[in-house]
Amino acid sequence: MKMTKPFWYKVDAAKRVAETLMLSRAERGTYSDLYNALFINGGFLPDNDQRLANITGCTLDEWREVRPAMESMFVIDERGWHHPDLLSEMLETAEQCGMFAMARILRYGEEFYENSEILRRTKGKSCTYCGDTKGPFEIDHIHPFSRGGTGAMDNLAIACRVCNREKGARMPVEWLHDLNQEWTN
Length: 185
Known about the structure:
Blueprint: H1 13-20, H2 25-40, H3 49-56, H4 60-71, E1 75-77, E2 80-82, H5 84-96, H6 100-108, H7 110-122, E3 137-141, E4 156-160, H8 161-167, H9 172-184
Antiparallel strand pairs: 1-2, 3-4
């Protein structure tokens, strides 16, 4: 998701210098180009060598030469390349600026944001867990995001705020087990 609104992020210059001290001049320039491109592109870049070479102004061979050094400084996962410090700074800034949709995308990924909007429109207004129809409603990660769950449609459920907050970062089975313990004590 590209930035559509003026947006800033704070830079800890001393930390950036310390992170890149052991890099060659070419690697340091590549690091800066990637970091800035991550910011411009909403915190993520695809894991595509040709695209990353273009972003950093390298030939494909030059990119392949510096890639191992860059891999040690960035996170590469199913969402692509990202930098944990930049993501947390962007998330904090998005929340402070009232850019809540962007904050959700940064926190959970674009797939979650798109699927949660579809789910809200198509699944009606009742809690998956208790059947409440009054709300307010939230999107729950059935397998919690903090425990490896994804933003895929089959991992999302409409939940009333009470159920979603009570379930927290537990699997439904764990939550129901804990509720059963509370009822029997």
